[in-house]
Design a protein that fits this description.
single chain; 371 residues; alpha/beta; Rossmann fold; 2 domains; eight-stranded mixed sheet; 14 helices; 16 strands; 20% strand
Length: 371
């Protein structure tokens, strides 16, 4: 079976959660007989074709970007050609330009779609886009949703629930490097141990400004891994609050990230808007046996992190609630360690890549068989 994944951005240009899901699907379904490849946009598509892991990636030039939506004239011809060469297309939503390409090319290839998130920020543009979006979603053979929480809470998915299948995201632990002793010691010297850790792209919905407010007046160490459009603003806020114990490390590779996950006390993931549909970083923390702190926003973050079982959940955009939960994690070491063990157990049960890939392949076969 040949499958084409189509999304607006991908590795190695960007390293967000959607990219990680696509990577895990491409790599994990190969052992199940799927030859997967990715078509994506890039501001600098040189080389045009490359291999990521063991799968092919074709990059076409992004002509411009408006409201987080990349556009490319080249996409129409390239997608039309590649869609004829595969058995099934796997779209990744949201990306309004993708809908236009789908209808304009009239490709006729069976398709499924992973619904990663509602459109939250561009509400005015959503009113214009919604008719096309609903028509596009209705054409999918199946819609994959990462958690029952998101399926139940999304107003856009409510009329499409019969077309939806819940397939939780999963990670392949073997794909992550084991911490190298020398590198581990480097990060121990630089950051110490027992710090709070955030990993992710520094975007508006990550809630980091609330987390910095929660740390004001404390000496609790926080390490922030990632870069993004909010970076300068967050650094200025940390300086204004006198948070000398907050370190911004920028974007790091998996080897460094795994060292920091081993050294940290807990992962803090304060996303406060529904744009955060799941949180791959939460899965990585659970995989490493670390407790988590996240916000209840009605999405998959609370499917991964169960309050009082794998960590704590608090109301969104509430620095006082964040501060209280952080204090519990720091002052109750035995309880904190137990939460981490239970997070690992939940990862083993629900969030392994093998399960995600097997369930996704079953959906592929259903669609191809026309059921």
């Amino acid at each position: 079976m040949r499958v084409l994944h189509f999304f607006k951005t991908y590795l190695p240009d960007t390293t967000g959660g959607v990219e990680q899901v696509i990577f895990q699907l491409c790599e994990g379904t190969r052992a199940l007989g799927v030859d997967a490849e990715v078509l994506t946009l890039s501001p600098a598509p040189v080389p045009r074709q490359l291999t990521v892991g063991s799968h092919r990636v074709t990059r076409i030039r992004e002509d411009f970007n408006l409201a987080s939506t990349g556009f490319s004239r080249e996409a129409f011809g390239c997608f039309a050609r590649m869609s004829r060469e595969v058995d099934l297309i796997h779209f990744h939503f949201p990306w309004p330009f993708m809908d236009v390409v789908h209808f304009a090319t009239r490709h006729g290839t069976p398709a499924v779609l992973s619904y990663h998130s509602d459109i939250v920020k561009q509400r005015a543009l959503l009113q214009l886009y919604r008719p096309l979006m609903r028509r596009f979603l209705a054409r999918m053979g199946r819609i994959l949703v990462s958690s029952p929480n998101y399926l139940q809470s999304s107003p856009e998915l409510e009329p499409l629930r019969e077309r939806c299948t819940v397939v939780p995201f999963g990670l392949d632990e073997a794909a992550y490097p084991r911490p190298d002793p020398a590198r581990l010691e480097h990060w121990r010297t630089r950051c110490g141990e027992g710090f709070f850790l955030f990993v992710g792209v520094l975007r508006y919905y990550k809630g980091l400004h609330h987390l910095l407010d929660a740390l004001a007046g404390t000496d609790w160490p926080l390490v922030i891994v990632g870069s993004g459009p909010m970076e300068d603003e967050l650094k200025a806020q940390a300086a204004r609050l006198g948070l000398g114990h907050v370190q911004f490390l920028g974007r790091l590779d998996d080897a460094d990230k795994m060292c920091l996950l081993q050294l940290c006390q807990a992962l803090v993931f304060p996303s406060h808007l529904r744009s955060e549909a799941f949180g791959i970083s939460l899965l990585e923390a659970a995989m490493c046996g670390k407790p988590m702190l996240s916000c209840e926003i009605g999405t998959g973050t609370t499917f991964v992190n169960l309050d009082g079982e794998t960590g704590y959940t608090v109301p969104p955009a509430d620095p006082l609630a964040l501060r209280s939960a952080l204090q519990r994690l720091r002052t109750e070491p035995e309880r904190t360690a137990a939460l981490g063990r239970q997070a690992r157990q939940r990862f083993e049960t629900l969030f392994r890549a093998e399960r995600m890939c097997t369930e996704t392949l079953a959906v592929y076969r259903e669609v191809l068989e026309g059921r």
